[in-house]
Each structure stands twice: as C-alpha cells, then as structure tokens.
UniProtKB/TrEMBL annotation:
Stored InterPro entries: HMG_box_dom_sf (IPR036910)
Lineage summary: Eukaryota, Fungi, Dikarya, Ascomycota, Pezizomycotina
Biased composition (Low complexity): 1-21
Record-given protein name: Uncharacterized protein
Region (Disordered): 1-35
Domain of life: Eukaryota
Amino acid sequence: MAPTTTKTATPKAATTGAGVKKAGRPKGTGKNTKAKTAMIKMQAYFKENRSKFKHLGFKDQQKELGKEWKTSSENPKNQA
C-alpha cells in the first residue's frame, strides 16, 4: 500500500491595505467638494437658527429655514 500524503493549508498573509496609497486624486479634491462644504454650512445655519421657529413642527421649521437660507449671506451661492 502506498503512503498517503495530506496537504495542510498554509495561512495566507492578511492584506488589509494599511500603508498602501491608492492612485488617483488626492483626498479632498473631488468634484463634489464644493457641494459638501455648502451642505455643511447649511446644516450649521439651520442648527443655529432653529430656535426662531421652535413653535412650529419640524417639517415647517425646515421650510422656513430653507426660505431664510436661500437669501442668507452665509449661503455660498449668494456670495459673489
């Protein structure tokens, strides 16, 4: 009878990608960067001014704050 051999699985090295730099654009220079910063500014504006409309429900607060935001000087679209 021939001797039987068994293969043992050798563990593969874990590839976590740590320290590996991806090719492409540097972080923060994507085409949606302006949109993201505008959204952050809008959210901050809403948070600061929500107390003006605390007598309204959330949905109505959002509507009123949106109207104010469109004409606000903090809105990047209104800054020439």
